[in-house]
Design a protein that fits this description.
Elements: E1 2-4, H1 6-9, E2 18-23, E3 26-30, E4 36-39, H2 42-54, E5 67-71, E6 74-78, H3 87-94, H4 103-130, H5 138-167, H6 180-221, H7 228-243, H8 250-273, H9 276-302, H10 309-332, H11 342-374, H12 382-402
Parallel strand pairs: 1-4
Antiparallel strand pairs: 2-3, 3-4, 5-6
Helix pairs in contact: 4-9, 4-10, 5-6, 5-9, 5-11, 5-12, 6-7, 6-11, 8-9, 8-10, 8-11, 9-10
Length: 406
């Protein structure tokens, strides 16, 4: 590791250095040979930082020639030569960034997002209903497992990471409880479990009541005939089958959709308020993000055998509309939104972490473990098992790659 002082770099900032980040008065950069170099002293750090700003690094230049970068969709802007470590610089970085936005492209993107989300979430439902594609066939095995990978990767790579970045934002200050993010994730997972467990207990109680009344009426109609004993034996069998783990349950899918919808609304808002220099890249990433998630949700909705087609379409509509709705809200608050405001940071961080807990429980318990340990893939043939495993890994990788930008 080389150390360079202000006298060694001369009047011209070295433009060949990249990946610069400040720690106090020292600037750490990577040189042409990928060796890490320390520029010691405030003058040296300022010179190199100015050079980096002129190259448009950290997602490009911003209004007034400031150096801006994004953390989880939140923009930080500094004057050339400033380090994030200083108190004055921190105050500027946390202030609202005034800029002109390209409104036509944002309004057009809203409709693109609506169409993309709708195709992804309605597609599997319509395939099952009108194309008569068998839910247990190879096509849906691939779609289901790809969706499972997407959900789990979304929870860990996107939501948990973004929540940690939010609660680590210097504009929020130092948290007294360092495990705030993961504690909220635990709360989300526990409340999801509690809601699902309570729903299953109520459903079991209702089933036992119906079975008991049916058995009593049958016994009375037979006038005490011994054949009523066989009908009584059937009651616990029905209860046992009802308790078997299954995902063909509206409550399970509604919980999954709730976790997806929470952070999809946040995505819509933060997408619109992103600066133009970062917007086009972010739009492409979010389109793929919503397409993958919509596919994952649509496949699970299509498997519901106890609800009508209208109910399935209404469930899918919630996902299709939520991101455009978030974008519409973002357009409404575009001139006043400050992603570095403390209340905003806490709200977004909390929702991201809570949604991560919901999706972790649903992804691991209701999707991954059920399909492979209790569902069709437990005894599936080699081809279906291989396709399912490949799709699962593909979903994990695809969504993790998108985490590079969003």
């Amino acid at each position: 590791m080389a150390i360079v002082t202000a006298s060694a770099i001369g009047p011209s900032p070295p433009a060949q250095y990249t990946g610069c980040h400040s720690h106090g008065e020292e600037l750490f950069c990577y040189g042409p040979d990928s060796e890490e170099t320390i520029f010691a002293g405030e003058t040296a750090a300022a010179a190199v930082q100015t050079g980096a700003s002129s190259k448009g690094q950290n997602e490009g230049s911003s209004p007034g020639g400031r150096n801006c970068h994004f953390h989880a969709g939140v923009e930080h802007c500094l004057e050339p030569g400033e380090s994030e470590g200083g108190s004055a610089a921190s105050a500027k970085a946390c202030a609202k960034v005034d800029r002109s936005y390209n409104m036509p492209i944002r309004i057009g993107t809203l409709f693109v997002m609506l169409i993309t989300s709708s195709i992804a979430v309605f597609g599997p439902i319509l395939l099952v209903r009108f194309a008569h594609v068998h839910p247990g066939g190879y096509i849906f095995t691939v779609l289901k497992q790809f969706g499972t990978g997407v959900i789990i990767s979304t929870a860990l790579v996107h939501l948990l990471t973004h929540a940690e970045l939010m609660f680590g934002n210097e504009c929020l200050g130092e948290l007294k409880y360092e495990a705030t993010t993961t504690a909220i994730v635990v709360a989300g997972a526990f409340l999801t479990f509690l809601l699902q467990y309570s729903g299953f207990r109520l459903s079991d109680a209702r089933s036992r009541t119906v079975a008991s009344k049916s058995g009593t009426q049958h016994a009375e109609s037979m006038n005490g005939d011994t054949s009523d004993k066989s009908s009584q034996v059937q009651v616990p069998t029905t209860d046992h089958n009802h308790r078997m783990p299954k995902l063909d349950d509206p409550l399970s899918v509604l919980i999954l959709e709730m976790g997806i919808i929470f952070h999809s609304a946040i995505i819509g808002v933060t997408l619109v308020v992103a600066g133009d220099s970062f917007y086009k890249i972010l739009v492409v990433v979010i389109i793929f993000h919503q397409m993958f998630e919509g596919l994952a949700l649509g496949v699970r909705i299509s498997h519901l055998s106890t609800v009508s087609l209208l109910t399935k379409l209404l469930m899918a509509s919630g996902f299709a509309l939520i991101t455009p709705l978030g974008m519409a809200i973002g357009l409404g608050v575009l001139d006043s939104f400050n992603g570095n405001d403390k209340a905003t940071i806490v709200a977004i961080g909390t929702l991201d972490a809570f949604s991560a807990g919901i999706l972790l429980w649903t992804g691991f318990i209701q999707m991954w473990s059920f399909d492979w340990l209790y569902g069709d893939l437990r005894d599936a043939g080699a081809v279906q098992t291989g396709l399912g495993m490949f799709a699962l890994v593909s979903g994990l990788v695809a969504m993790s790659v998108l985490g590079r930008w969003a």
